[in-house]
Amino acid sequence: TMSISTQRGDTGETSLIGGRRVSKADLRVEAYGTIDELISVMGFARSICENDEVRERTKAIQRELFAVSSAVAAGSEKKPGKKQEPPAVTKEMVEALTSDVHRAEAIEGLLADWALPGEHAAAAAFDVARTTCRRAERQVVRLRETGEKVSPDVLAYLNRLSDLLWLFGRRLEKEAGVDGALRDGKNPGPGWSRAW
Fold first, then answer.
1. pLDDT truncated to tens, each residue of the chain (196 aa)?
2. Which residues sit opposite 23 in a β-bridge?
């Protein structure tokens, strides 16, 4: 019978798409593994989100992230004897996220202050997703800085997605009538939050 437990990774190594064995701590494995983590964190956020539009958009993005993860995992690796291109992460995918960001930013009062996660469960879950997305982005940058091939659209996608995840959190707080602002009104500072 078939089993998901091959035991081939018991020594701390895994196979890249081309079959080459690398450490499970390899930068490429760290990068696509963190995108996998992001997909799961977003799934949790979606499971407790009460806004239908945010929930459906999150699900669609989770599906896209499988392509992003595969593109990172593939890199320049190819299976012997096969011409195999990694799944495309396109400018259109990035532009769709940019449009989502602009639509969310147009909601009055959304960019009022820095956010303090934790006032609303689903919003806090999207904040965890945002920070996971930023970590994935940093790992992809590290991978690229070693000279490995990474599509620039992958980085643009992750950068834009982290902005959108932050905005989803703020939107859910606003719709729930929750004040997730960092400051209590006594301390001056910038007038709106950044998604870091």
1. 665 555 555 546 554 555 555 555 578 889 999 999 999 999 999 999 999 999 999 999 999 999 999 899 886 555 555 555 656 899 999 999 999 999 999 998 776 667 888 889 999 999 999 999 999 999 999 999 999 889 899 999 999 999 999 999 999 999 998 876 766 665 555 555 455 5
2. 13
Within the chain, strands assigned E span 13-15, 21-23
CA 68 to chain centre: 9
> How far is Cα 94 from Cα 112, in angstroms, rounded to an integer?
25
Q: Which residue has the tokens 């859910």?
A: 172
CB distance 89 to 136 below 8 Å: no
